[in-house]
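A quick word before the example. In earlier lectures we treated sequence and structure as two separate objects. From today on, think of them as two lines of the same record. Here is CTLH domain-containing protein written that way.
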Amino acid sequence: MGGVEDDEPASKRMKLSSEELRRLSNGSTIKEAVAGSPGDLMARPLQSEGGEEVVGSKGVIKKVEFVRIIAKALYSLGYIKSGAHLEEESGIPLHSSVVNVFMRQILEGNWDESVVTLRNIGLTDEKTIKSASFLILEQKFLELLDEEKVMDALKTLRTEISPLSVNNSRVRELSSYIVSPSFCSVRSPKQDTLRARSRNKLLEELQKLLPPTIMIPEGRLEHLVEQALVLQRDACIFHNTLDKEMSLYTDHQCGRDQIPSQLLQILQAHTDEVWFLKFSHNGKYLASSSNDQSAIIWEVYETGVSLKHKLSGHQKALSSVSWSPDDHQLLTCGAEEVIRRWDVSSGECLRVYEKTGFGMVSCGWSPDGTWIFSGLNDKSICMWELDGKELECWKGQRTLKISDLEITADGKQIISMCRETEILLLDREAKVERFIEEDQPITSFSLSRDSRFLLVNLLNQEIHLWNIEGDLKLVSKYRGHKRTRFIIRSCFGGLDEAFIASGSEDSLVYIWHRGTGELIESLPGHSGAVNCVSWNPANPHMLASASDDRTIRIWGLNNLCTSAKQKEPHSNGIHYCNGGT
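And the structure line, produced from the sequence above:
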């Protein structure tokens, strides 16, 4: 364990440990002399003095390590007496005698002695010894300068620090302090307190550097407990709550009731098939587009959704919508027609984007909201300023007539379907093209909120999850939904986007756990193919689905069902807006 087996009584070890922790907590110094001869300072493995060597039902927890970590936690929490009693009763010291001496030397500023002791605490790696010596001598150098002992500081730098050949850039920085008058400060009554704090900080840095068997890292028990809780949470396939509280008294397990599987509301304002829908980034609005040549902006409340604006003006069916980064504006794209930009607050059409002789097939915003981009039916991708000026156009096989279009959060990569079985990732700055190649025709895709993953829907009724950060890698596959004729869209959703949702031609909404790929819900209710789904990014308990049955369904938790039904679906009134230019 990197400690010391010696003849000192437990009470003496207890005193050293408790004093050391008291110093760490309040920055005071120790005046007691250290007992023990130099021969006692050679570290030897710590041994348990009684009881079983392991604890726990699995037999994997070493008792000595367990007790030392508990003692460390007690001292860190300020329970000095309890920590000392644990050391005394168990006969297992938190630190060996030599480590206690070393820590005391650091806190009292006995730099030369501490460097000598460092070599006696059981270290075998010369690199670690040099790095630790560097930190100690650096503190010595800074305190000598602080005391205006410039020549002594210079000697320490030249004869002690530099020969270590560690962190040369820092050595140059330290040398500049000698000629910098601003570094040396006038002594003040608070200087001793500040010095004690800096020595405590040095001790914390040394704890990080030295092997944990010698000096247990700060917060080790807390880290182990947090790690166990996180693993339990990640293993819970239904975990979907914003409540971050987790109890240590029981194992964590969420119920199926955390998944939005209860129908809250049916929205019936469209007069034809609803093809696309998307929640705004802030979750306060929902936009839908339909074969009826209209788009609708819905307002989202805690208890339901109501119609805010119905957007008219397109001459063809609307294939998609896209929210501006600040959610103040909305793009709507007609199928091989034009793009319209709308003000969300007023419902006014602000501008129409078109290219003579060509039709638009998709639309999107730049991450900063200063320009938009679109796929055209000549398979090119174009960018426009908000005033309609064309910025750039990538010709060639860049997109398909029916294609999704995305841009990463940093604005560097535009993603589109360039061929039936390929997705193009175009780096705008480096002019580098990468391709996701599938064995089956691709029907749609969706980008995760962090721009690291791409969800790809295929003709063979599979959904593939790709990691697009660095080397392209297929991560997972999801199966169960039905797709034979139509474009079916899927999405990421839930807390930390831990779930995958998808429409389906069998009128169901499917939900999988993203990590395990397990199908956890299939929601009935629609009477036609479910074309698109969208999960509210601000509310993990709200999901929307759009269908050929001309309706949008809002899904939530069981306990919200009653209150949602009391909400009038069109309480704001239907507001028809003229989209003419």
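Notice the following. Confidence is low (pLDDT under 50) at residues 1-50, 184-189, 562-581. We will return to this example when we discuss secondary structure assignment.
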